[in-house]
Amino acid sequence: MAYVERNTETTSPVRLALIGSGWIGAFHAESAAARIGGTRLEAIADPALGPATELADRLGVAKVTANPADLFVDPDVDGVIIAAPARFHSSLIAAAAAAGKHVFCEKPAARTLEELDDALAAVEEAGVELQIGFNRRFAADFAAAKRTIDAGSVGEPRLLRSLTRDPNTTDAIPNADRTPQWTIFLETLIHDFDTLNWFNQGAVPEQVHVMADALVEPSLKDAGYLDTAVVTIRYSNGAIAVAEANFSALYGYDVRGEVFGSAGMVQAGSLHKTSATSYTAHGFSGETPRLNVELFHDAYTAEIAHFAEVIRSRRDGTPAPELVAPGGADARAALALALACIKSVDTSAPVNLADVLPAAVQASALPADAR
Amino acid sequence: MAYVERNTETTSPVRLALIGSGWIGAFHAESAAARIGGTRLEAIADPALGPATELADRLGVAKVTANPADLFVDPDVDGVIIAAPARFHSSLIAAAAAAGKHVFCEKPAARTLEELDDALAAVEEAGVELQIGFNRRFAADFAAAKRTIDAGSVGEPRLLRSLTRDPNTTDAIPNADRTPQWTIFLETLIHDFDTLNWFNQGAVPEQVHVMADALVEPSLKDAGYLDTAVVTIRYSNGAIAVAEANFSALYGYDVRGEVFGSAGMVQAGSLHKTSATSYTAHGFSGETPRLNVELFHDAYTAEIAHFAEVIRSRRDGTPAPELVAPGGADARAALALALACIKSVDTSAPVNLADVLPAAVQASALPADAR
Amino acid sequence: MAYVERNTETTSPVRLALIGSGWIGAFHAESAAARIGGTRLEAIADPALGPATELADRLGVAKVTANPADLFVDPDVDGVIIAAPARFHSSLIAAAAAAGKHVFCEKPAARTLEELDDALAAVEEAGVELQIGFNRRFAADFAAAKRTIDAGSVGEPRLLRSLTRDPNTTDAIPNADRTPQWTIFLETLIHDFDTLNWFNQGAVPEQVHVMADALVEPSLKDAGYLDTAVVTIRYSNGAIAVAEANFSALYGYDVRGEVFGSAGMVQAGSLHKTSATSYTAHGFSGETPRLNVELFHDAYTAEIAHFAEVIRSRRDGTPAPELVAPGGADARAALALALACIKSVDTSAPVNLADVLPAAVQASALPADAR
Amino acid sequence: MAYVERNTETTSPVRLALIGSGWIGAFHAESAAARIGGTRLEAIADPALGPATELADRLGVAKVTANPADLFVDPDVDGVIIAAPARFHSSLIAAAAAAGKHVFCEKPAARTLEELDDALAAVEEAGVELQIGFNRRFAADFAAAKRTIDAGSVGEPRLLRSLTRDPNTTDAIPNADRTPQWTIFLETLIHDFDTLNWFNQGAVPEQVHVMADALVEPSLKDAGYLDTAVVTIRYSNGAIAVAEANFSALYGYDVRGEVFGSAGMVQAGSLHKTSATSYTAHGFSGETPRLNVELFHDAYTAEIAHFAEVIRSRRDGTPAPELVAPGGADARAALALALACIKSVDTSAPVNLADVLPAAVQASALPADAR
After folding, report:
1. HSE toward the beta carbon, residue D245, CA cutoff 13 A
2. Distances (CA, A) of B331 to B132, B320, B362, C197, D323
3. Which chain D residues contact residue C145 at CB under 8 A?
4. Is C142:C198 a contact under the CB 8 Å cutoff?
């Protein structure tokens, strides 16, 4: 053979490990193992060893464990992806950071500000990266809208809207009775809160009011279950935002954003799965997006690629990506909104953020480079 | 450590090698090396060793050569991706096939039917796979349109349209004077010809008429250069198709398809880069797609993933993908149309396919499982 | 001449008279005089005789008066179109009705429930028609959405949205300091309230919460002026609605509606002035609608045509139109929402409709044929 | 009464008379009688007195005749609207003009260039107005596209497309066997020819090639019947245009235009009946336009309003409308294309316009103010 053999050892991959091999964890695993150049999925941790092993086999990953702590002591792991249930997030962040691992954590980073602050202190102490899974920031249309806002085409924001309607196949919610009570705020609308904070960067939320209900599963309402919510938010710059969620959209996965301001408006989000449109005797028609990993396939992939790129820049001295990913301060700002929503539901009244977050300096009020 | 160590040796990647490290070759290389699970880019061949080596280093590929023949004798190569200049395609197909390598070849597979038939004979003799880079078949919107047609929503096709307008940044075509004379038919419209044949599956083209011109670069017209063309095609089922191309769309990359029939119509292709739309004092506005690797990012990736999946199914006995990729017969059908176009330009008259392709049985007339 | 002469005296036009020759009054006058078959503009009343006379001359109307009472005693007037300032609406309705004239009145029909109820009593006593200028019900897209809802495609409504953003040319509101304090609720959002009540027919609003501000003209905020408002409404069927308004959309006139329910969603409203779209080096672009009489040209015309058709059916015994136009009960339901909004602003708290409208039976809860 | 009585006699309406009370004639009659300010439908002529009388009664028109000549001698007729069958158009134009009546004539103005030239000579001799019913020029989206072209956003046109697909309810064409042989060119595509000439103003068609067939009604093909056609046109500026027609679109009435040039592209035409869109478990959907008088309701009305405005400007000295309506030269240019198409079908070859129109100076090559 006449090959010019190259030494490829210098180009060492960024080695990621996964905690939690469920739906979105598995997707991130595939991204790290197969969709992104220069990354390697080193290990998978999940107390449910069965699915973890199956995933590992499918992706050619050699190391599987029931115990996340194994990842933290593994010198061949550069960063961890936390996709465990939300109640474990903050302690896993803290432990990973303490071990010197960079952290990508699915939202919400925590369920209370206290546990979040503990985790953020650990991150700061360790000096590691913390990236939160607010994937919409990596969606092409939302990112284009953000650029439009940053370019001044919208002017000063005055009215904002962000909505999430989860796809469904029948008008009943699977396992609704086992869904934690405040899921609609802590796990669903938290995406919208981050989007609104990001779109309205430079301002902070001051007041929140919620109307919410169990309309899909009314029998669970007395137990405090909510599947429908409309949140209005008043920001420090006067802008008024609406965040809206529902757990049962039979037409698919509906995520949209809109910012209206002194100079114009921008919208993001689409309900067309592809550009293909049919025209028949019944009119025009086409397909709608159905799954989060379908609508946000590229965004979910891009956020992990970004995480890897940041790790590489810190490890190998390569240039850091220009984009600043959502971090701890953003997690805190979104969580504060979710907590204020819970209080608004409990009191049936508007809630001032100051009453939830007394001494906090909220993230989005800071210039991006201060975060 | 408490890892359950898995043996990952059984999941051997599909090993691909690249011939031609130009624009689209580099993209395919990245797909094989980094965007697709279960594949490995084993080697790169390009007489221009500089770019090839740079690409190899970037992707961590150890083997680089100026001579494609090195790939053919490498036992660690399962399949080759031919992205060399068009004039080398057919002989490379033949050589790769003779060496027992599966072949993915960019369009056109050949410049004459004679050289194509030689290559196809080698492929058939060797029993290897041949997939042609008609990437639109792997684009989500074109594939959705095809499913709509196959489902009968359009009825019997009667009018079809496929167009390609290549993006440009100024109203002048770089290197137009070095562009081979019939490029607009052999390299550009050949995509549209395949799309039309595919959309009108079961029928064969019978007659072609061309109006073409050098409108962007009129000074080159006398040399036979063409940058603008409208082709009308009459099919055996009566359907009339229009294929249209131009080399200088200042608004970006414009690829669309439309099939109208006895029951309805379907359209594919979009000029919106994302769903983000702005609204200002000047009206509404948004971005248009600019590059082929942007508009068809997923389609280019999917076609290589498909090629790898077919190789794996043959090598490892895994299930073959359901979708049938475009192969030699499709390359032949599209090439025949391009050659008929050339004759129509030369004679300024309609041309019967029978006069270009006397004894041929055209591909699209055959049932898909016969190909 | 060989004409077959027809006796055309039997086809007597419906004779309408206008009160208030301002912007929208003039448009209605043109509709009655020139855009609709079978109607005649008999007279115009306006204390500003100058503009009234000019309009009359332009439209060939012989009778002009400064005093609306002249219209009420004119036996050649079948119905009146009230387009005077809002503070005169209810007394004009009452006087016209008492004189036996059918009444079309621009919104709002009144500024308080008390004065509205007096007017409605006069209408009922006289047995005349009362149609309210909720023109969106006559817009093709809103009407199509309503048919979709009525057909059950949306299922049970759960989340609704209606918005109005008035067009502007600079980011300052002309005559803002002379705008009555609660205009955003009584004159702008009242359209959205009617749309929401109509889309969610069969349910009644139970609770309202408002966030509002003077963001375009902050210097007027202390005087109670509001130019931006977000209203959330909880309906008796659990549905939660958002009504949103702003007085300064630099991109034009933005009116949209959306209903999401147990089976799907429907949207109405468009920001494309025509279907024409341009594509240039800057991306795609097109015009947005600028004026209410542009966006709702056909709807404004259709509502007057409907009014005339109802009059004819009562006068001549011709068939009544199938569609039921918005009437007194709808005016009352929308007004109650506006009044609840004012109370919510005053108290900075959610307001129960029951506290604004204690003994009321709201219109939209009744079956359509009971109104 | 205290009315200020105005003398309205000075504002005399423009008096129009209709010839031919069929589908589109009846629509124009309604426009003249009821949709447009300042016009009056004075008389109706139709050999079928029954429908003419019914229409007259409905619109309150006193004069009905079987003989168009009665209109020409009626001093109370300012202009005539010719909506008779196409074979009578040119002689009616000539007769009306000779009588000093202004003429609005539905397309085609004639079936041969000879009879057209006779009619145009009569028009010129009489000095009356002649407006042709190329209604697309008055459609808001096509007019917006034209303004975009005139503003230079498209640059020099290079590729154009215009299509007409007539709506249908079953895949069979009513009365196909009684349709004149060349209807698809003379009555349908003639609209597209005018649109293309208008969009490509300043250039003239030089060559035409046709592929056409009877695909909906194949049994009539031997009789020369055609229901499907694709026409390619080469213009003097190099631009290549495609005009396409079919008589059986089950999804409704489909009329679109597209101009691509050195600087960009513009598109007009829409298949959305309204902006309302539904989203259900089956995807997104909405209504398509069904009838010409639905899609072009405003355009049909506007062209008659324009005709009346021109008459008024000539009769009363009011300012003429800015827009130049399509006239005799445009009719001639479009007809020449239709005749060239017929020759191309007959010869199965491309046809030079020079061979159809030897000594002609074509209209669209002239500056607009020379017409």
Report:
1. 25
2. 7, 21, 10, 60, 52
3. 276
4. no
Query: How distant is the Cα of A136 from the closest Cα of chain C, in angstroms?
Result: 22
Amino acid at A149: I
Whether the CB of C213 is below 8 Å from some CB of chain A: the reply is yes
Residues A76 and A69: beta-carbon distance below 8 Å: no
pLDDT at D273 over 80: yes
- In degrees and rounded to multiples of 5, residue D349 shows phi and psi of -150, 160
Q: Are C242 and C161 in contact (CB under 8 A)?
A: yes
What is the least distance, in Å, from the CA of C286 to any CA of chain B?
Answer: 5
Q: List Cβ neighbours of B36 (8 Å cut-off, separation of 6 or more).
A: A34, A35, B301, B304, B305, B308
pLDDT at position C6 is: 75
Residue pair A328/A109 in contact (Cβ under 8 Å)? The answer is yes
Q: At what angle do helices B297-316 and B23-30 cross, to 10 degrees?
A: 60
**Contact (Cβ atoms closer than 8 angstroms) between residue D44 and residue D61:** yes
- Rounded to whole angstroms, the Cα distance separating A329 from C365 reads 47
The pTM score is 0.95
Taking the C-alpha atoms of residue C260 and residue C145, their distance in angstroms, rounded to an integer, is 11
Phi and psi for D104 in degrees, rounded to 5? Answer: -110, 125
**Minimal Cα–Cα distance from D368 to chain B, Å?**
25
Beta bridge partners of B234: B207, B240
Q: Give the tens place of pLDDT for each residue, A237-294.
A: 999 999 999 999 999 999 999 999 999 999 999 999 999 999 999 999 999 999 999 9
CA D169 to centroid of chain Cα atoms: 24
ipTM comes to 0.94
Residues ≥6 apart with Cβ < 8 Å to C236: C203, C204, C205, C206, C365
Neighbors of chain C with 3 or more C-beta pairs under 8 Å:
A, B, D
> DSSP characters for D198-229?
HHTTT--EEEEEEEEE-SSSGGGGGGT--SEE
Provide the CA A104 distance to its chain's centre, in angstroms: 10
Q: How close does chain D come to B339, measured CA to CA in Å?
A: 19
Element (H, E) at C158: strand C157-167
Residue A365 contacts residue A236 (beta carbons within 8 Å):
yes
Residue D214: band (very low, low, confident or very high) from pLDDT cuts 50, 70, 90: very high
DSSP letter assigned to residue C215: S
* Residues C280 and D153 sit within 8 Å (Cβ to Cβ): yes
The beta strands (E) that lie in B236-337 are given as 240-249, 254-261, 265-268, 277-280, 283-286
Q: If you compute the radius of gyration of chain A from its CA atoms, what whole number of angstroms results? A: 21
Judge contact between A290 and A296, C-beta under 8 A.
no
For chain C, give the mean pLDDT. Answer: 94
| Size of the A and D interface in Cβ pairs below 8 Å | 51
Do B279 and C288 lie within an 8 Å CB cutoff?
A: yes
Q: Is D36 on the interface with C (CB under 8 A)?
A: yes
CA distance D356 to D11: 48
B 9-28 near A (Cβ less than 8 A)? 11
- Adjacent-strand bridge partners of B16: B41, B79
- Asked if the model's pLDDT at residue B359 lies above 60, the reply is no
Q: Which residue has the tokens 């300032």?
A: C85
Q: Which of D65, D153, D269 sits opposite C278 (nearest CB)?
A: D153
Query: Which residue's entry shows tokens 């020029």?
Result: D137
**Nearest of A164, A17, A23, A172 to residue A85 by alpha carbon:** A23
Q: Tell me the β-bridge partners of D105.
A: D82, D132
For residue C202, the one-letter residue type is: G
Ranges of residues in chain C with a pLDDT under 70 are: 1, 7-11, 358-371
Structure tokens at B210: 């061309």
Burial annotation C164-178 (CB, 10 A radius, 16+ → b, else e)? bbbbbeebebeebee
